[in-house]
Design a protein that fits this description.
The chain contains 13 helices and no strands.
Length: 281
């Protein structure tokens, strides 16, 4: 019998370290006892109670809305920025543009959140003094902050895919008279669609998970789910927190499985297609 090597042991220990707390969390979400550390039998009471917890469900709905808007805006801006950086190698200010786009990757979130807070406070004062418009911090400011943070990740994902593409297909479309915008939408976008989807999911996850930025730029009535969980955990872990976390884990796992199944079917279809030379013959 083959003995496991050191790398396999470390891998399995790492997987256990990551996933064992999640399994324990799911198990204790079915705990009938109100005390998290005391097992009182199996029960679905806390899942049913989520529907009556209007404050927690409002935070979930708000976080999902912000994450959807953030992912959509980050993909739109990040794809255009990645296309400009990949296809236009030389233009004035390219180095500065690339540095500003990727700066959120290395910038501490505390610094980013504080800078955005000062920006929104100054903007609110300017709008109120010049136009008499009240600009309160809320879902809009959280959306702007999350989009600013997530664009950098989308740029990295999409740029890596654009660097692997054969530009001769795009050049052939341009030579045949297709406008640049039509070439981009009908040729480039379908070829980089998997990376766009991956960037969208990454931005959605980052927005749904963020706590630091939202804590700086949020206002009254705009509490997100991480902020709600963090404020509740400081007073002790409640069974409702375990239940909502288990629901999120189940939804993410189901979505990941669905995307894997779709990608696997698309890969099988591409392998079943005959080569280009056979189609030409």
């Amino acid at each position: 019998m083959r003995r496991p090597d050191f790398s396999s042991v470390v891998l399995w220990l790492g997987l256990v370290f990551i996933y064992l707390p999640m399994i324990i969390l799911v198990i204790y979400s079915f705990n009938a006892s109100r005390l998290v550390t005391v097992w009182g039998g199996w029960s679905m009471h806390w899942y049913v109670g989520l529907l009556d917890n209007s404050q927690l469900m409002s935070a979930v709905k708000r976080s999902l809305q912000i994450a959807f808007y953030t992912a959509t805006a980050a993909v739109a801006l990040g794809t255009l920025a990645a296309f400009a950086m990949s296809r236009f190698q030389r233009f004035r200010g390219r180095t500065l543009f690339s540095g500003m786009v990727t700066a959120p990757l290395v910038m501490p979130e505390v610094i980013t959140g504080l800078s955005l807070l000062l920006l929104f406070v100054a903007l609110a004062q300017i709008l109120e003094s010049l136009f008499g418009v009240l600009f309160d911090r809320g879902m809009l400011t959280i959306w702007i902050a999350h989009t600013t943070f997530s664009v950098a990740y989308v740029v990295i994902v999409v740029s890596s895919r654009l660097g692997e593409l054969d530009q001769s297909i795009e050049e052939a479309a341009l030579d045949l008279g297709a406008p640049p915008w039509k070439t981009f939408l009908q040729i480039t976008v379908p070829m980089i669609a998997p990376s766009i989807l991956a960037g969208w999911l990454l931005a959605f996850t980052l927005s749904l998970d963020d706590l630091v930025l939202a804590s700086f730029v949020s206002g009254p009535g705009s509490t997100t789910l991480p902020m709600e969980i963090f404020s509740a955990v400081r007073l002790g872990v409640k069974p409702e927190i375990n239940a909502v976390a288990s629901v999120i884990l189940f939804a993410v796992s189901l979505l990941t499985l669905l995307i894997w199944f779709i990608a696997r079917r698309a890969d099988k279809r591409s392998r079943m297609l005959p080569p280009d030379d056979e189609l030409a013959g």
